């Protein structure tokens, strides 16, 4: 009976991969180090296959639960902590791809080592890498481009860049950090 269930599970996984093999976004995602077909399909299924649902990379990160949340009470701000909510499957997929990328991608390894040197613990450094990779994934899916090493992907932000006429001490407009509305059927 267990063998039959395993065979059924394998068959379903194969069918999902065959269905997604025709999706051009699968090729886009698998071009990134640390993302194979199964993980790419998990990411696509978790976001619903439509990246336009998310206003920017920050919204995708908030949906995944990898955007930091500010701890505050009244006027006291106590720093940031990892989000506890979000889409658990997407969060897990992004975390796993970041973990694999540490071994496979020298650029990811350098970023991870830099975060560790800043004093972050292992899981926090991997989560920082997952957040960074989430930005790149958003850009790749939005533009339909393959992974380009060296950080040449661009993401849109809701905060305008500073200009020479804007003093450095001037406050920047606050970013909207709300989750995108999810249409459920």
Notes on the protein architecture:
The chain has 185 residues and is mostly helical. The protein is 52% helix and 6% strand. It contains 7 helices and 2 strands. The chain has helices at residues 2-21, 24-30, 37-47, 57-64, 88-104, 106-117, 122-143; strands at residues 69-73, 76-81. Helix 2 (24-30) packs across helix 3 (37-47), helix 4 (57-64) packs across helix 7 (122-143) and helix 6 (106-117) crosses helix 7.
Largest sheet: 2 strands, antiparallel
Order of helices and strands: HHHHEEHHH
Indicate the overall shape: globular
Strand content: 5-15%
Contiguous helical run count: 7
Count the strands?
A: 2
What level of helicity do the residues show? 40-55%
Number of domains: 1
For the residues shown, what is the average pLDDT? Answer: 81
Widest sheet, order of strands: 1-2
- Which structural category do the helix and sheet elements fall into? mainly alpha
Compute the CA-based radius of gyration.
18 Å
Poorly predicted residue ranges: 155-163
Could you give the distance between the termini? 33 Å
Organism: Bifidobacterium thermophilum
Region (Disordered): 145-185
GO biological process, one term: DNA transposition
Biased composition (Low complexity): 149-169
